[in-house]
Every structure is written in C-alpha cells, then in structure tokens.
Amino acid sequence: MAGKEATIYIVDVGATTAECHSGRLESDLDFGMRYVWDKITEIMASERKSFTVGIVGFRTDETLNEQYDQADTYDDKESYKNISVFKKLEQMTMSDLQPLQQKIQASNNSEGDAISAVVVAIPLMEKHTMLKSGKPGKYKRKIVLLTDGQGNISDDEVGPIAQKLNELEIEIAIIGIDFDDDDYGFKEEDKDDNKRRNENILKELADGCTESLFATAAEAIESLAKPKVKATKPYITYEGPLKLGNDAEYPETAMVIDVKRYFRTKLAKAPSARSMAITKTDALGSSLEDVKTSYSYEVNDPEAPGGKRSLQREELDKGYLYGSTVVHINESELNETVLETTQSFEIIGFIPNDNYDRFLTMGESCITIAQPTNEKAVMALSSLIHALHELGSYAVARFVPKENKPPQLLLLAPCIEPDMEALVDIPLPFAEDVRLYRFAPLDRLFTTSGTILKSHKYLLPSEELTKAMGDYMDSMDLSELGTDDDGNPTEYMMIDDLYNPHIHRLNQAIRRKAISNETVGEPAEILVRYREPPQTLKDQTKSNLATLKRVANVQKVPDKVVGVGKSKRRKQATPLSNLNINELVAAGSEPAKRTKIDPANVIPDFKYMLENPPVTEEAEHAFFTTTCKQLGAIIRSTLETSFKLPIVGGGPREKGLDRASEFLSIMRAGMSGLETPTIYNDYILGLKKWLLADVENVDGKQFFLDYIKRKKLGLISAEEIDMRTFLEVSAAKAEDFYRLTLELPDRTVKAEEDS
Amino acid sequence: MSNEKPSWMHNQDEEEDEEETQDETNYKQMKDAVIFAIDISESMLTSPEDDPKADSPAMAALNCASHFMEQRIISNPKDMMGILLFGTESTNLNDEGNTSGKDKYPHCYLLTELDVPSAKDVRRLKELISDSAEANALLVPTSGHCRISDLLFCANQRFNLQAPNFDSRRLFVITDSDSPHDGDKKAMSVSTTRAKDLYDLGVVIELFPISRPEETFDRTKFYDNIIYRDPNENENTYGVSTFKSSGIGLLQDLLSDINSKQVAKRSLFNDLKFEIGPGLEISVKGYNILQKQIPARSHFVYTGGEEAVIVEGKTNQNREISQESVVKKDLKKAYKFGGSQVLFEKKDVDKVKDFGGPVIRLVGFKPKSMLPIWASVKKSTFIYPSEGGFVGSIRVFVALWKKLLDNKKMGIAWCIPRKNAAPTYVAILPSEEKLADNGKQISPQGLWLYQIPFADDLRSPPDVPKPIRASDELVDDMRKVVQQLQLPKATYDPRRYPNPSLQWHYTILQAMALEQEPPEKASDKTTGKHKQIDKRAGEYIKKWGTTLDKQARAFMAERKSSLKRELGVDVEEDKPKKKAKTAATTQKLEDMADSDVNKLAASGLIGKCVIAELKAWCAMKGLPSTGKKADLVDRVERWCDEN
Fold first, then answer.
1. Fewer CB within 10 Å: N-end or C-end of chain B?
2. B280 phi and psi angles, rounded to 5 deg
3. What is the pLDDT of residues B207-252, one digit of tens each?
4. Nearest CB to A655; choose among B161, B296, B444
C-alpha cells in the first residue's frame, strides 16, 4: 500500500558477535544479519523512494553520533561512546550496500550501550519524518534492534524511552541472538547471568511500547522464508449504474443501482528483465549499457539492390489484412472498425448455478459493491444479492468499461460475508472464443460399423478399476487435512498459503545476487511444499494406491520405440479398412512399383521407396544411398530454381525454399529413423559446402541460416538417435556444424565408418 | 506515434499464451491448409424432393465453404484454403505446355486456388452462390467418369506447391457417392495408392458423406480404403455421421460439422506425464479449446507502389551511447534493483525457472464446492488421455473422470505443462458431454486444468461500511424478477453470443476490401432485450422499486432520528450547514454526487477544478480523459447537459 516508511536498524557489532554459538558455523553477527540484510533488500526491491533505511551500529570501535559530540558532561559522553551512525535515513541504493557491508563487521570492542543506541536513533527518526511545518508526517516508523545481549546495558531510562517511542509512534522490534523464547521453543542452556539480565532489560523496553516485537533471531530468520505478498490499493474498474432493463425507455420498469467495481484477482507478474549490453571497460571489468530499440521498415522491390527497399516511418500508412487483401486505412478512418459503444453495465438474464461450467471462465475476477454512501443503492443491491443466493442463481451481464471499448459478458455471482455484500464477476467466452474440437466420448466406444460399446477390455475401465479409483480418491482427501489457528482441522492448501514459486524464487535470487553475488540455489521449501501429496496422505493411502496400480496395470511405452533398429521399423500405415496398400502394388496391379522419385510427388515417392527396400542388407544400404542421392539432386535443383526468382513475400521463391527444407527434413527423419544417419550427414555436409562455397552467394548463406540452422536440419548426432557406439558425430560437433565456416567439422566421420 | 509498438512486436506475455510449437515439429510451419473437394454430379445438384426450394447438396457445400472462408479470415488469418470441384465437365487445370490433348486432371476444376483467401475470393464465391446463371454455367456434371485418383493427385499437387512445410494439411471431401469407381478394381487400386501418397505427405482426409434419399452412405465400399487415422488417438471412432440430403437440415448439419473442423486440432502439449499417485503415471494431451479471439493487429502499409503492400518491420537493438548495434553474445538479462542493475547469466535465468520437468502431479482431492467462484485468473486447458507415453492411460483417465463426476470432487495438482513453464496449482474439473439439438457434440467429455490463483494474485476488496441487509419483502420481490428473466434454456450458451466488436471490425474490413457500403448498424446479440424485460418482468420490477423506495425512506428516517437521539437536536441542526460549506470548497470533483457536479456546471465553476480532478472524473464516467483543460471542462459540461 502506498505510504511512507522509515526503518532504522540498530546493529550490535561487539567483539563477542564474532563468536559462533549453538552449534552454528557462522558468526553470531552473520547469523543475525541474515535477517537484517534480507529485510533491507526487500525494501530495496520495492524501488520506492518513500521507503527509507537508516543504520546505527553500537559496540563499534569508533564513536560517531551527535549526542556524543554535544554532550557536556563526562558521564553523558561516556554513555554515547562506541555508537556510530553508519547511515542516516535515506533511500537505500546498491551503491550504499558495499560500504555498509564493510562497516558491519565484528569490532574489537565490547563497550557500548544498546539502549543509548536507541536514544541515538530516535532523533534521527524524529527529524526525518517531520514535515516542514514541524508536525510529524504520516509515516510508518520502525526501529529494529539486533544484539547478542552481551555487553553492558543500563536500565535507568527504559521507562521514559518507551514512552518517547510511543509518543512518536515508533514501532520497535528487538531481535536477540540466542535469546530465550518459550513460545517459539528456544532456550540457551549455558546462558551467562549478564546476558540474562540484558534480555530482561530489553524485554522490559519492548513491553513498555505499544507497538513492539521481541523475538529470538532463529525465529525471525525462519519467518523470512514466508514470502511477502505485495499489497495493492483497491483499484476501481467501473463506477456507475448497474441496470436491468432500459430506464430511458421504460423508466417505471427498469432497475438502476449505483455501484462500484474493483479487481478481485489479478495475475501477479514476475519482475521482468531488461536487455543490457555488456561493455568492456578495461582489461579488468565490464559494465552494462542500456539497449535502445530502433525500428526500420522495408518492402520488397525487385528493382532495388538486394530486392528490398527501405522506407522511412513518414512514408507509411496504417492498414489491416482481410485474408490476404491489404485494406489501407487513412489515419482519419482508423476508428471506423471500432464498434461504437457507451459505458454500461447491464444484466441480460439469469441462470441457475448448476448450469454453469466453471471451466468456461475466461480470466480474472472483479467484485461489485453498491455505492457505499448511497443507502438506497446498498439496500437495492442487497436484495439482488440475496435473491440470487436464495435461488442458487447467477446473473449474466454485459459490461462496457468505457466509451467505445469492446463489450464483455460477465457472470455475476452473489457473495455474502459478515461485513460485505457484493457481486463477484468473472468474464464469459463469446462464440468465437470456444473452439469446436470434437473428441470421442470417454464412457463409450463406437465400432467402425457404428455400434456402441459400453465395456472394453483396454479402453474402458473395469468396475474393479473404477472402484479402486474411488477408494483412492477418498483416501486422498484434502478437505480436512489442514489445521487452523485454533488447531481444528480445516482445508489443506488454502489459496492464502499458495505462493507463486517462480515470482518469489526470482525475487529472492535477485536480492541474494545483489548483496552477495550468490548463484541461484534450490527454491525455498515453503514455495514448493505443495508440489506433491503431503507425507501423511502418502502413508495412509499406500494400500489403496497399491490396489489401484495393480488393477490399472499401466505400462510405460519404452522411450525410443520409433525408428530404433531395423527390426522395429515403422509399422506400415493402413487405412481404416486395414487394406495393405503395398501388397496391392506388389501383386502387380496398378500402379507399378516405384524406383525413381517423381519430382511432382517427391515426399510420397521417397517414403514409399524407404518402405520397400531390397531384401538383402548390403543392397539395402546402397539403395538408401541412391534414393537419397535422387532426393538430394531434387533439393539442389529446387534451390537453384528458387534462388533465381524475385523476392516477394509468400511468393514462389519462398515456397520453393520451404519445399526444399521440407524435403531436407523428410530425408533427415528418414535416415535417422533407419539408423543410416551417415547418408544424411554426408549429404548435408556437401550441401553446406555448396551453399557457402561462394562468398558472394548471399542466397546460399541466407538459406543456410534461415532454414538449415533455424529448423535444426544439420548433422544427426550420436546422442540424438542414441547410437553412441556407431556414430562419431557428437552433439558438440553437430552444434559446430551451424557455424558459417566450412572448415568445421571434418570428414573423419565418413572415413572411419568406411574402414 | 513514436512510442507506439509496431505490429510485429509481440508482447512477451501474449506470446506465452499463444499455442507453443512442439519440439518435435519445430521445423514445420504451424499453419493449416484446407482444400474443399466438392462432388459435382446430377444427384449433388438436385434439390431434395421434399423441399425443392432448398439448396442442392452441392450448393449447400459451397455455402459451407463460403461461410468457412469468412470465418477463417477472422479466426485463422494466416491459414490457407482452396476449393476444388470434381466431376465437372470442364477443367481449368492444364499446364500451359500441355499439348498432349489429354487433360492433366480431367473433371477437376479449381474454383479457388489454395492460398490465404483474398477479398476477391470471398466475393467470387458469394456471387456464385447468389447468381444461379453463373452457377449453372459452371456446375455442369460430366457425362463421363471422374476418377478419385485424379482428384487426390490434384490435391496432392496443390498442397505440395502452395503449402510447403505446413504442419497441417487437410482435404475435406463432400460427396454423396459411396462407390465412385463402381466396382472398377483397377481404378480403385490407383485411388488407394494416391490416398497413401496423401497420407505420406501428411494430408488428413476428412469425409463429409451425404446419404441419398433411398440409400445410406456406406463408407466401407470405398472411402475406408483411403482414410487414415492415428491409432493412438481414439477419436477416429467417433460415431459414423452421414448427412441426409433430404430436408433443409442438410446445410445446418454440414455447417456444424465443417465448423467443428475450422481450426486444425492442434495439441498444446503431447504425452504430458499425469502423475495420479507416486508411481502411477499416465499420459495426456492438452488442448486450447478456449482462446480469446481479438481483431488482428494493424500493420504498416506502403501505398507508394501500384497497390498497397504490407511493410516488413525490423527491430534493431543498439547501444544507448554509441548507437552501435549489439552483438547477440553481448546481450544480457538484468533486473532493476536498488537503483542499479543485477545481472543474470543464462545459467541463472534457466535455473530460476527450473522446478523440475513437465508434469501434472495430483496432490489430492477436494469437494468441488471448495473452489470459490472468484478464484479465477486464467482460462482453462482441456486434457484428454493418450496412450503415447503409457499404455492403459485411457482407462485410468476414464475411471478418474467418472469418479470425479460421481463424487462431485475436483483434483488438486501441481502443474508444469511445458519445459521451463512456471509452475501453477490447478483444479482438475471433469466435464460432461454437451450435445446440440441436432445431436452433434458441442462440448466434449474430459478433464480441465483450471488454474487456482496464488495468494499473490488476490486483491483485497475495499473497506465498506457494514452492509444494510435488504428486508425479506424486498428480497422476495427481487426473486420474482430473477425467476422471470432466465436466459434461454436456463443456461449460458456461448454460441448464442458472437463478439460484437470483433464481428464489426471484420464486417467493416470486408466492406472496405470489397469496396461495398458498410452496414449502418452492427448486430449485437449481447445487449439486454429491453422490451422483453419490460413485458416479462416489468410489473415485478415496478413492485420491487416501490418497496425499495418505501423501505429506503423508512430506513433513512429511522437513522436520522437515532442520530438525533445520539447527538441532541441542536447539534444536528448545525452540522449539515457546515458540511455543505466544506463540500463546496474542498470536496474533490470525483467525490461529488452527480447533482453537485451539475450545480457546479450550471454556475460555470467547472473551470475552477484542477486538471487532475477533471481527468479522474472523466475516467470515472468512462469519458475520454485526454486533451487540454478546455476540452476536459467542455466534456464535463456537456455531460451535465445530457444528464
């Protein structure tokens, strides 16, 4: 929510904080600072100028604070010694981070009073949050004190200080490293008396404040894992009448209620990255530079060099495509295709709840309330809400958010809560938004003759399977698996507990990278805790699941079934009648067996020939080689012809190139499927040479980049077809192939295969 | 204009919404080409006996093709379509150099070349349908014999030449002849080989068989020999539908079947692992049944040449300072943070997105009622079983579907539909089949992945004063209104509501492209039927209004008097005056009641408001909030005049 926030962190850097306790491997300071850094970076991530951060250290080696400078007496001076203001309240930026990280290190000193540090912080806060008029500004003020509880704390002024904090509306949070906390369940066994005394003084301070928190560091750090959901101000999407009927035409018999409509859900977006360019500044480092996008425009023009002519933005008009026809529209006519509408929100009818399928919903929801200051409207809307609720009905409404915006259809549902009565709405699809894909029904089968089958051994579940599924479903119930605040069973996986794993992981990764350049780690447990069934369910459902598995008898299809080994070659496709086409041909009826690829029927002929090779293995390989040679020649001639044609978008030239690339992909798929990748690899190496040999050949280079590289039609690697032992084209080598040079890769592959 | 996004630049988020290309077919163009092959024979040209005025089957087919073409321009603007007549006397498919005296594709006539349809194609087809003289001249059946093999090879050539590398090519055959070769074994065998060629070319044949009055179309006689289906899809066995040529139902039936094939049935994901429990996995396919249709973006066009052409745009990325263009390897991703940039290497970007491989993993089940109606953020995805990854998937899927329906439950699952897709939680909802009046499926049986909002997606509703609950009497009055105004069939059927702005956009474009007068008024089926509302519920609404008036007045009177009791009379009398004063001086325009704004306008004081206030007010009222102050003031005053 908008507003200003000022937070001062008071950090204990006494010599004792360098020690490690409670079995931890990091120093107490580093441990405690995890909380502080995380909070600070969270504030930074908000990118808000009005969120300011100050940092005060105590038990520092040096002394740097106004109270010390201005103190007159020795005693006064003493009490403000070893307290340093590291950073005044300001917006925190990246450039502040590193110097602070250097300053916040355990000192060699153990003197310095925590309570005095609070006294130092108070005027900083007071001054910063004061308006020019001298009145306190509207701020959220907070002081966070992190300490290990060692050192000397004077308890003289605790009461007045707490009072001052209350007066200034400052919230205080005291985070103690290894402080005892019964609620959280932490107790430091070997606690010395001084620390116990200090804990009590600080507790007293916290208790004296209206807004306070007193926690052990471990708990505070644990709480960091709980993602913070960004709060947003309520956003009004519409304000005006909700109507039923037309009050202009039928003033007596139309319903008009003044309402306001707000967002109810809105998909949260992950922060988006910017493209930046790396610039080498010197041998040591590089910096980032902004990238500007510019646009250039061109049209095909056979007379222009390169077949393209570039244009300036000023020379261009606007238009739309109607099919392939360009419809040019003058600037003044641009609005003609926009349907004229006026702002409106009107109910067009009602439907019973049960007749609405939830999955038809098109997106985010909104909530509509009556104009709060208009009691009559509140009462009127209430009657509609209750009528809908009692009847179990929804309303369907037409909504135009603004003049000349496209109308939307909404489903309005009643929402009755103790302190709110409202209509929730969700967008409905139009006729064009629903595609009519047809699917065979699930609960019955049709035979080819049209008979309906209600049971089938493989495709329909047996009664046993259906029952096992039902039992499993019952044992996997989540509706009472959770626990509410009072310890009563409640729904598991409530929406409030579902955090967007991607957004929060990314946010955390950005913060971690910013402060310590850490690489991205595994996602926090809380973000992925619902990615599988809870352990208790897994345990209690074991036998049900075992039964279900047994009766379901699902078999995994082996990973590579298509095209591995000649024995498993593609099963001959047959039409619905199961007629064997190839036998028909072999039997000598028309047409004759094909031995040559007809340039007019390339793909079918090529596939036919691969499916009908000679019987012996040697002959087969030779046959595949010559077949590919034929196809290869066709590809080359297709390319040669196309290159000569002028560039016209979607014209014969482009179609020719598309055809050539389709032929290539068919050859590639065929050869990798038949485990004869070398035939293709040899061909594509030759083709690359042919395309790139002539430096002047722009067309060849373009084809290589736009088709062979982009569509990944290069070398078939051993990894790709799982033939490690036979083929010496590695994935890396296959990748190298896409470079625009001819040296790579060499032909040793072929040589070895031959020998 | 300068900061306007050019049309070819796609928004990242929108991109994610689009159908993703599948890894295994990424060398194909995700485009669809359809050829309508319409049989022209005596029987196809004869109107049904019982209704001689109705279209003949051939004309119905052409009508369908015309409808399909116009639809296609709206819904799939990049896809191609062609119309091929077969069995005609004449042919227009001879190459120029053909001197053999023999026709290349005898009795085949290419009415519309396979291509993205142009406005001219649309007009030509419409004219043919409306102008019987032209139709009679063209649609002359041959006295000889048309071989299906010629038709198939002709289609083969059109696909090969016009739609190279398309991932979807379909041939719609509309005929009433179930044995075109009449027992000629040789001709039949040539046709079956030509059909196999089409199969090898990746062409799917869809048959729309029309039964003649006396006999039912029998697919097994010939057509089952030329139609291929993927054995992994159990959808080939979706009943056998034939159309009766009698009666006027033919066009409607044909239209609904052909329309259901409008969009090439492309899956969103294939053989995705669906983990029902640890160690029990099946495979499913996903489909985008719901897809918001919006008008295609405008383009830049160049009108300096002979005809207007689309301009190709290019984006160039330049360094801000030096203006040099950036080499790809120097481009990095960086996030804004604390007034500076945090650089992410490729491996970081990949890692942060990596939550494991694609899967739908069931976490458990909840009653359907635990999904609140407002918990909605995105359209749902339809899933259907496939045996491609696991044999036995279909039966397990069906068992799950059945039990979800029976028990009124939903599955709750963790879902990563594609590699590197951000994980979401989904509710798995079962759907029952819905049939249209003619028995055709309009909504399939299957499961839907319904995205559950995250806590991050929730917006808190505004703070409002405690609600004033309407009295039972008022609710009763309103209930009668609700009961009177049910939508037809008490359901929301999307098919009844075409998107008015989308249709208008294309109606105008079509008129412009064909240089015709655009219609005066848009057809808009989404507006309330005011006359009907008045007729059916007018009396009830009136009664409700009277009750409301009475009770609202009573409520306010009661509150006033209780306020009096609390505050004492004299305080109360003082207060409103003060309030009125402050209202006039400090209240913001957007907080004022309309009547106050009217007063302000009447006294010519609107101009005293600051621009921000005026803008906010205009935005609130749905008026344009741009322009100079004078425009804004003018707009407000005009609004006041009208209201």
1. N
2. -120, 105
3. 988 888 778 888 888 898 888 876 555 444 444 466 765 555 777 7
4. B161
- Helix/strand/coil for A511: helix
What pTM value is reported for the model? Answer: 0.83
Q: Which residues are B366's β-sheet partners?
A: B410
What's the residue count for chain A?
755
- Give dist(CA B360, CA B284) in Å, integer: 9
Rounded to whole angstroms, how far apart are CA atoms A585 and A611?
A: 13
Q: Does A426 touch chain B (CB under 8 A)?
A: yes
Domain spans of chain B? 29-259, 270-293+357-457, 460-569, 587-643
Please check whether residue A278 is in contact with residue A288, taking contact to mean a CB–CB distance below 8 angstroms.
Answer: yes
Peptide bond just before B465 cis, omega within 30 deg: no
B55-114 confidence digits (pLDDT tens): 888 999 999 999 999 988 988 888 999 999 999 988 888 765 566 667 788 899 999 999
Query: Which positions of B are annotated as active-site residues?
Result: 28
- Of B281, B299, B319, nearest to A289 by CB-CB distance is B319
- How far is CA B622 from its chain centroid? 27
According to DSSP, the β-strands at B359-367 and B269-277 are parallel
Closest CA to B57 of B41, B69, B37, B81: B41
ipTM: 0.84
Angle at B524 (CA atoms; ends B518, B530), nearest 5 degrees: 130
* Domain A4-224: CATH superfamily, name plus number: von Willebrand factor, type A domain (3.40.50.410)
The residue behind tokens 């403000």 is A80
CATH of domain B270-293+357-457: 2.40.290.10
In sequence order, what DSSP letters do the residues of B6-63 get, joined into one string? PTTPPPHHHHHHSPPPPGGGTTSEEEEEEEEEEE--TTTTSPPTT-TTSPPHHHHHHH
A558 in contact with B at a CB cutoff of 8 Å?
A: no
Torsion of CA A430, A431, A434, A435, to 10 degrees: -150
CB contact under 8 A, B478 and A556: no
- Sequence-distant (≥ 6) Cβ neighbours of residue A561 within 8 angstroms: A568
Per-residue pLDDT of A134-149, as tens digits, reads: 888 888 999 999 999 9
Measured CA to CA, the distance from residue B189 to residue B496 in angstroms comes to 46
Distance CA B123, CA B514 (A): 7
> Which of A329, A358, A510 minimises the CB distance to B337?
A510
Closest CA to A238 of A208, A219, A213, A260: A260
From B60's Cα to the closest Cα of chain A, the distance in A is 20
Looking at the DSSP bridge assignments, the partners of residue A148 are none
Rounded-to-integer distance, Cα A546 and Cα A8, Å: 58
DSSP A130: B
- Can you name the residues that pair with A140 across neighbouring β-strands? A5
Can you give the residue ranges of every domain in chain A? 4-224, 234-435, 447-476+534-555, 498-532, 577-754
How many CB atoms sit inside 10 A of residue B202's CB? Answer: 18
pLDDT digits (tens, 9 = 90+) for A308-357: 788 888 888 888 999 989 998 887 787 888 999 999 999 999 999 999 99
The CATH code that applies to domain B460-569 is 1.10.1600.10
Q: Does CATH place domain A234-435 in 2.40.290.10?
A: yes
Neighbouring residues of B377: CB distance < 8 A, sequence distance ≥ 6: A265, A266, A267, A363, A364, A365, B451, B453, B457
CATH topology of domain B29-259: Rossmann fold (3.40.50)
The one-letter code for the residue type at B181 is: H
Residue A304 sits at the chain B interface (C-beta within 8 Å): no
- How many other β-carbons are positioned within 10 Å of the β-carbon of residue A521? 12
**Secondary structure tally for chain B: helices H, strands E:** 16, 21
